[in-house]
């Protein structure tokens, strides 16, 4: 048991770093994912993940495969797309799904173009799928910083975020915070995707954000519980994904996301609000009132 | 002594340069209870949005008495009923003007929420999730939220749509209590009998104000007929509305010219 579950993390520095990085990521990205899901913006996370590619690619083009320039580039590209799409949806008739799709597609094409200008396909794979087993100190510090900023922002703007999801028109009638909070939230999404893309790559980083959140929805009807549960699911997925990858010599990013995917599928079936349990519990009985 | 709670000065509100409320002048007295009446598309909801400030005026101004808190219950709420929230969470949103983003909710606040739910006949519903409420229950809960807001000016946009008679009676009771507490209340209503029975003052709208005053006077047959004849549609080639006394010698022809430019 010890050999199976604990030894890999004790014996190997790269496993400790991978664990620390992915746990920090879960802590921040999973609650953000819960709000994305509750705002029916689950696919927005996916779009944003594609959108940060050209920035990361530009950093890669200029400085090679280095964490800091690629991160800053990704952050800039993500913020440009988030603000662009958000502004189009707030100030024109077009809804956010359409404007987001337009902006991220432009961004994605630009990113692929930039990567192919210089890199080989191995590099492209690196950017797309990340390397959780090769997190260096700079990357860990960055992820830790992102987690702190995210959790602090969520704590401070919690009430506004809830109000903006539950009844945006009401919030607008009592406060001017609605629009700033929306953009702040998109900023947090970008930040967490950028943090995740070191470890999981641009395409998979959204998986750690959305899958635990989507799974948690099947277990509870309270937002705070949902966030806590999503974090717990995220942590479990990271642990089991890393162990799976270690013992079976599988790529680590996909292992983590597939673990989260397995939790999601089990939750859809067996969650207290899932497909089966909710039906099975009292199939032929009901209360008098 | 009567003072203005809301003042309209030549207020024009609308969308895409078409007016929905056209040149409204006047004041809403503090402590008055006014029904806003008119056909669909006559600008009632737009006026409400203008007062709250969700919609900016195209011309003129709408000023709310300084320091007054406004509570607004929209006709088409953007409430997301699938959001995992309980009735108590929804009603507690009404604490926002008092507590804001970070203010801690006190025991008194929670008691106020409970009392508000009781007074709309929703005692014991605190823990119910909002997606299990009926239309009438939700409307009662939203009234409770307005109660909690503890506002000086209360705007209700068609609060009685698809609500049964008993609930309408209860909600009218709440409105009367506000009126008794000298709050300023404006309610968009379609049921003219209801207006005649319960609302001392009426604003009759048909894009422009048709009549505004004591309900009996405002709802005279000729006024109602006038309001009913109003042309709801927007016309793309409608002439631009110029302020009176300005450029008058150009006449009608020039107006049309503008519209095609």
From TrEMBL, chain A:
GO terms for biological process: response to zinc ion; transmembrane transport. GO terms for cellular component: ATP-binding cassette (ABC) transporter complex. It is a multi-pass membrane protein. SUPFAM superfamilies: ABC transporter involved in vitamin B12 uptake, BtuC. The keyword Transmembrane applies. This is Zinc ABC transporter permease. The chain crosses the membrane at residues 20-38, 47-65, 71-89, 101-119, 139-162, 174-191, 197-216, 223-244, 256-278. Keywords: Membrane, Transmembrane, Transmembrane helix, Transport. InterPro entries: ABC_BtuC-like, ABC_TroCD. Belongs to the ABC-3 integral membrane protein family. It comes from the Bacteria. It is found in: Cell membrane; Membrane.
TrEMBL record, chain B:
One of its GO terms (biological process) is zinc ion transport. One of its GO terms (molecular function) is ATP binding. Residues 6-232 form the ABC transporter domain. Keywords: ATP-binding, Ion transport, Nucleotide-binding, Transport, Zinc, Zinc transport. Gene3D superfamilies: P-loop containing nucleotide triphosphate hydrolases. Belongs to the ABC transporter superfamily. This is ABC transporter.
């Amino acid at each position: 048991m010890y050999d199976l579950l604990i030894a890999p993390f004790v014996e190997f520095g790269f496993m400790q770093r991978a664990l620390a990085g992915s746990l920090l990521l879960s802590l921040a990205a999973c609650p953000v994912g819960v709000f994305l899901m509750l705002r029916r913006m689950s696919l927005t996370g996916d779009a944003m993940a594609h959108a940060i590619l050209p920035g990361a690619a530009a950093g890669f083009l200029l400085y090679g495969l280095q964490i800091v320039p690629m991160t800053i580039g990704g952050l800039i590209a993500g913020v440009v797309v988030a603000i662009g799409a958000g502004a189009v949806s707030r100030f024109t008739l077009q809804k956010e799904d359409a404007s987001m799709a337009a902006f991220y597609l432009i961004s994605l094409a630009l990113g692929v173009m930039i990567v192919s200008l210089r890199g080989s396909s191995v590099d492209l794979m690196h950017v797309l799928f990340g390397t959780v087993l090769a997190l260096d100190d700079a990357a860990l510090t960055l992820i830790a910083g992102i987690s702190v900023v995210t959790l602090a922002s969520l704590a401070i703007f919690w009430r506004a975020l809830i109000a903006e999801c539950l009844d945006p028109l009401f919030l607008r009638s009592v406060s001017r915070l609605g629009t700033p909070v929306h953009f702040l939230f998109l900023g947090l999404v970008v930040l967490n995707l950028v943090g995740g893309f070191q470890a999981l790559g641009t395409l998979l980083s959204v998986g750690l954000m959305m899958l635990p959140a989507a799974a948690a929805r099947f277990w509870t009807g309270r937002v705070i519980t949902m966030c806590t549960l999503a974090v717990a699911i995220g942590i479990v997925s990271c642990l089991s994904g890393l162990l799976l990858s270690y013992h079976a010599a599988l790529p680590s990013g996909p292992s983590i996301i597939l673990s989260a995917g397995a939790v999601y599928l089990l939750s859809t079936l067996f969650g207290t609000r899932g497909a089966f349990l909710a039906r099975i519990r009292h199939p032929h009985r009901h209360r008098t009132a | 002594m009567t003072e203005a709670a809301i003042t309209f000065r030549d207020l024009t509100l609308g969308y895409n340069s078409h007016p929905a409320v056209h040149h409204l002048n006047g004041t809403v007295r503090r402590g008055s209870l006014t029904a806003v009446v008119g056909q669909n598309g006559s600008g009632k909801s737009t006026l409400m949005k203008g007062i709250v400030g969700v919609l900016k005026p195209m011309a003129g101004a709408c000023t709310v008495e300084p320091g007054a808190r406004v509570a607004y219950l929209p006709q088409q709420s953007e409430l997301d009923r699938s959001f995992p929230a309980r009735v108590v969470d929804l009603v507690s949103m009404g604490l926002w003007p008092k507590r804001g983003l970070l203010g801690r909710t006190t025991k008194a606040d929670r008691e106020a929420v409970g009392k508000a739910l009781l007074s709309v006949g929703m005692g014991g519903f605190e823990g119910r999730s909002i997606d299990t409420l009926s239309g009438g229950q939700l409307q009662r809960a939203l009234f409770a939220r307005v109660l909690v807001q503890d506002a000086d000016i209360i705007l209700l946009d068609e609060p009685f749509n698809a609500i049964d008679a008993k609930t309408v009676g209860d909600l009218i009771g709440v409105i009367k209590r506000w009126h008794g507490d000298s709050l300023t209340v404006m309610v968009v209503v379609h049921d003219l009998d209801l207006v005649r029975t319960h609302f001392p003052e009426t604003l009759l709208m048909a894009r422009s104000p048709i009549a505004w005053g004591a309900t009996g006077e405002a709802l005279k047959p000729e006024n109602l007929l006038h309001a009913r004849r109003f042309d709801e549609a927007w016309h793309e080639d409608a002439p631009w509305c110029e302020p009176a006394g300005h450029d008058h010698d150009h006449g009608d022809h020039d107006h049309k010219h503008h519209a095609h430019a």
